[in-house]
Amino acid sequence: MTKIIKIEIIARPRNYEELIEALNDIGITGMTVTQVMGRGNQKGSSHSYRGIHYITKLLPKVKIEIVVGEEFKDLIVNKTKELLKTGSPGDGKIFIYDITNVIRIRDDQEDQDALTK
Ligand SMILES: Nc1ncnc2c1ncn2[C@@H]1O[C@H](COP(=O)(O)OP(=O)(O)OP(=O)(O)O)[C@@H](O)[C@H]1O
Ligand SMILES: [Mg+2]
Q: What fold, for 4-116?
């Protein structure tokens, strides 16, 4: 039985659609995408972004959550780096979680079956 993981990518909003296209092309379709605010290790004062003044030092980011079999891990991580890495601070982070259960509500399928069938 393969392990099921969640890959959570938090990255710049720039180019994220290109990543979603690329994942779609390799057969990864199930995902949740959320517009979020965040900060990493950088310190700094308040700033403006697209005309909006942020006093909290949070920047707009996109969060992409994908639940897949572990065999997709390297593929997804490598694609993300290939498309979203600029080498500058703020490129983002990838968090990987173990998933204990997946249950599809419609037909009671569970785990790997709920993901693939
Ligand atoms: N420790 C963390 N916990 C939760 N979310 C985080 C954490 N670190 C980063 N994030 C999220 O990832 C986003 C991007 O982080 P960021 O790329 O700035 O990380 P970093 O560690 O500061 O690296 P860099 O030096 O490249 O900026 C943040 O805006 C935040 O949403
Ligand atoms: Mg940072």
A: Alpha-Beta Plaits (3.30.70)
